[in-house]
Specification:
By secondary structure, this protein is mainly beta. It has 2 domains: 61 residues, OB fold (Dihydrolipoamide Acetyltransferase, E2P); 71 residues, OB fold (Dihydrolipoamide Acetyltransferase, E2P), CATH 2.40.50.100.
């Protein structure tokens, strides 16, 4: 499978919570982290999503927000993966920032150069990659 989403995580479905229109899918990643995806009920059925099923969770880098200090606030985005900044690749307007999670997997975020400066991002710094469950695309092998 070839896709443009830089963030591709192999994992195992650990729970499925069907709703009226959407199904919440909890995915345990190979490195030990967990993430949440919400997909339509029809998609969950057509992909035969069930506990124990191997999936690939994909998130486009522009959908990832980086947080270095929550300042005592809690946020509604279900996916909050903490790690260390391993690389900041500046571009003309945006930078790609790679965060390594505790299990060795990496999350790429595309943020503005101004945001890199405002957050004071540097290699080795702790940061949290945040994204909503609706930003996660699930794929399964046929």
């Amino acid at each position: 499978m070839k896709v443009s989403a830089r963030n591709q995580f192999k994992g195992t479905v650990s729970a499925v919570r069907p709703g009226s229109f959407y199904t919440e899918v909890l995915v345990h990643l190979k490195g030990g982290d967990n993430l949440v995806a919400t997909v339509t009920k029809e998609s969950a059925q057509s992909l035969a999503i069930a506990p124990g099923k191997e999936v690939i969770a994909m998130i486009k880098a522009p959908h990832v927000i980086l947080v270095t200090d929550f300042g005592g606030y809690r946020i509604s985005a279900r996916n909050q993966l903490e790690g260390k900044v391993v690389e900041v690749k500046p571009g003309a307007i945006n930078s790609e920032v790679d965060i390594e999670l505790k299990g060795g997997e990496k999350v790429a975020a595309t943020i503005t150069n101004e945001s890199v400066e405002a957050l004071g991002l540097y290699q080795g710094q702790t940061a949290t990659a945040v994204f909503k469950a609706g930003s996660v695309i699930l794929a399964v092998a046929e």
